[in-house]
Amino acid sequence: MELVLLTALGVGGATLVGALIGFCFKKMSHTMSDMILSFAAGVMLCAAVFGLVLPAIERGGDFSVWIVIAGVFSGALVLNLLDKTVPHLHRLSGLDYEAHANGSQQAGKVLLFVMAIAIHNLPEGLAAGVGFGTGNTGEALTIAGGIALQNIPEGMVIIAPMIAAGISKRRTLVIAAITGVVEVVGTFLGYFAVSVSNAILPFALAFAGGTMLYVVSDEMIPETHAHGSERGATYALLFGFCFMLIMDFYLG
Predict the structure, then answer these.
(1) Is 27 helix (H, G, I), strand (E, B) or coil?
(2) DSSP letters along 41-95, please?
(3) Could you read off the pLDDT of 195-235 as tens digits, one per residue?
(4) pTM score, whole prediction
(5) Labelling 106: which of 62, 152, 201, 206 has CA 20 to 30 A away?
């Protein structure tokens, strides 16, 4: 339980670490943002497949493939519904905004974008927590590590638009921390869900994998290929995937 607590704090704290780094790079270019997000996308892609989907198939019994398919699509559909009410990741860089005379209006929009990050953090935390249900601590830590790596650039890109909207640095840091707390909550929800009944573990693993695959395909890859850095972004994704593959091989 102590390890789960530390992992939850680490996963959630990664967003805060990214926010602190973001203060140093308030004018981060699209190219830099795309490369960082692509690397994180590769990490998440590998973690979803090797840390969640494949273990779900191994533990699903005679109907494992169908259970996993149902779980993956359920996870994707949940995020699809959320995406109908929250904005997309590409707006979080703050580079697509023009200055508004009405600062409160701009701040309201920015806070809506930050809420989108917070909402997406919940299923990511769930994925980290569910990973511990496999009984393979190394595998669970690898999944959590991949999610934490993805949270750092997220924390970085939410800082600039909040500062530009006139939100104070102290309040900006508090808001970024809250988005990390959401992930901590998700981690515990995932952990306790599979602790109560291992029967739901294959579906829960696949569900968490589906949410991660959805985020990578619907949010991260389109964003990183939208500003003329497609080739670099592709290689960054491959580096991220291979990095996570090495981590999974030696720590899993």
Answers:
(1) coil
(2) HHHHHHIIIIIIIHHHHHTSGGGHHHHHHHHHHHHHHHHHHHHTTS--GGGGGST
(3) 766 678 888 888 888 888 888 888 778 878 887 888 999 99
(4) 0.70
(5) 152
